[in-house]
């Protein structure tokens, strides 16, 4: 059984998110208009859509692997809460040494919609240190 994700076009030229292949986890998101990202710069790219993510779920925006590996484009600020009904926009940073131009309709990122859990937050004076890692941090497991 599949769940329903309602999409509203905010612009007639917007493209509805799609799964590229059966079984894919991420829905492709598309640029509404041409956008250039200069070297080392970031841009907030419009999609021209709003969505109704069901309560109890969250939309997580992730890189398109080809854009990341071939062009150095990395997504930022990638959480879309179920209560949000505004335009979905994608923040991308250009980590490459060349500017990148998105044409209207280009794939810009992908969104994975997943169930979320809620935790009661409690301040604690001590944390359980009886773990295999404890407080060991960055680089503690070697190369």
Rg? 19 Å
Strand residue content: 35-45%
Helix content: under 10%
Name of the CATH superfamily: Deoxyuridine triphosphatase (dUTPase)
Spans of 5+ residues with little confidence (pLDDT < 50)?
A: none
How many DSSP H or I helices?
1
Given helix and strand content, the structural type is mainly beta
CATH architecture type: Distorted Sandwich
Shape: globular
Q: Strand count, sense and closure of the main sheet? A: 4 strands, antiparallel
Overall average residue pLDDT: 94
Total number of distinct structural domains: 1
Strand order of the largest sheet: 2-11-6-8
Secondary-structure element series: EEEEEEHEEEEE
N-end to C-end Cα span: 43 Å
Count every beta strand, where a strand is a DSSP E run of 2 or more residues. Answer: 11
The CATH topology turns out to be Deoxyuridine 5'-Triphosphate Nucleotidohydrolase, Chain A
Text of the CATH class: Mainly Beta
Walkthrough of the structure:
It is a single chain. The chain has 143 residues and is mainly beta. It has a single domain (6-115), classed as Deoxyuridine triphosphatase (dUTPase) (Deoxyuridine 5'-Triphosphate Nucleotidohydrolase, Chain A), CATH 2.70.40. Helices cover 5% and strands 36% of the residues. It has a four-stranded antiparallel β-sheet with strand order 2-11-6-8, with no helix packed on it. The longest helix is centred in the middle third of the chain and has 7 residues, at 65-71. It is globular, with a radius of gyration of 19 Å. The termini are far apart.
């Amino acid at each position: 059984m599949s769940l329903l994700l309602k999409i509203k076009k905010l612009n007639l030229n917007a493209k509805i998110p799609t799964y590229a292949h059966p079984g894919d986890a991420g829905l492709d998101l598309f640029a509404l208009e041409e956008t250039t990202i200069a070297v080392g710069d970031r841009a907030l790219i419009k999609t021209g859509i709003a969505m109704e993510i069901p309560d109890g779920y969250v939309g997580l925006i992730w890189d398109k692997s080809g854009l990341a590996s071939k062009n150095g484009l990395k997504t930022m600020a990638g959480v879309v809460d179920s209560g949000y009904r505004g335009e979905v926009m994608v923040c991308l940073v250009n980590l490459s040494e060349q500017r990148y131009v998105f044409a209207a309709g280009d794939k810009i990122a992908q969104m994975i919609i997943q169930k979320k859990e809620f935790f009661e937050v409690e301040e604690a004076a001590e944390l359980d240190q009886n773990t295999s890692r404890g407080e060991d941090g960055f680089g503690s497991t070697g190369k």
